[in-house]
Design goal:
The chain is α/β, with parallel strands linked by helices. It has one domain: Flavodoxin domain (Rossmann fold, 3-Layer(aba) Sandwich), CATH 3.40.50.360. The strands form 2 sheets. Strands 1, 2, 3, 6, 7 and 8 form a 6-stranded parallel beta sheet that branches. A two-stranded antiparallel ribbon has the order 4-5. Helix 4 links the parallel strand 6 and strand 7. Helix 1 crosses helix 5. The longest helix is centred in the C-terminal third of the chain and has 28 residues. The protein starts with a strand and ends with a helix. The relative contact order is 0.22. Bound molecules: flavin mononucleotide (FMN). Flavin mononucleotide (FMN) binds next to helix 1, strand 4 and strand 6. This is Flavodoxin. InterPro entries: Flavodoxin/NO_synth (IPR008254), Flavodoxin_CS (IPR001226), Flavoprotein-like_sf (IPR029039). It comes from Methanocella paludicola (strain DSM 17711 / JCM 13418 / NBRC 101707 / SANAE). One of its GO terms (molecular function) is electron transfer activity.
Length: 152
Amino acid sequence: MPRLLIVYNSTTGNTKAMADAIAEGARSLKLDTEVVDAFNVTPEDVMAADAIGFGVPTFNYHAAKPILKLLDDLAGKNVTDKLAIVFGSYGWSGQGAPVVAERLRQMGFRVLDPVIRVKYRPTENELDGCQLLGKDVAMHLKNIRMTENLNA
Ligand SMILES: Cc1cc2nc3c(=O)[nH]c(=O)nc-3n(C[C@H](O)[C@H](O)[C@H](O)COP(=O)(O)O)c2cc1C
């Protein structure tokens, strides 16, 4: 059964709220989904999942450090075509999530659009958007599985 791992960093809970909403959307389509603080995730955990969500707030004009460290630790692993989504809260400049999305693409991940950014605490509407992204990942994973079965 395919599995989605959502890794986040969140100091005041804003990016975590987005992660939880994405998980809710994915689980509503019966996708096995786990939400984990980046401090508790290893590169092996990332490699073992079928799709990864990266929750990336912006601090001091950079992506959150625990996420950048995880990406550094993934260097040299074969992530070709592994499905990923990227999201995060920000306050004014907001480059954290898009910078991470670009880096993931360069590493070989297949990053789904949209990369969702939310200013500070997500509104109900924004959380609905996060839920839709979670559903989208679930549908992509199911399509990949169906194609693999056709080709088997
Ligand atoms: C010390 C500090 C530095 C920050 N630097 C930036 C920044 O450079 N650009 C930006 O867009 N937001 C910045 N922010 C705002 C955070 O991205 C924003 O508060 C966000 O909601 C935090 O998300 P979290 O609760 O998931 O950690 C900063 C916040 C703090 C506390």
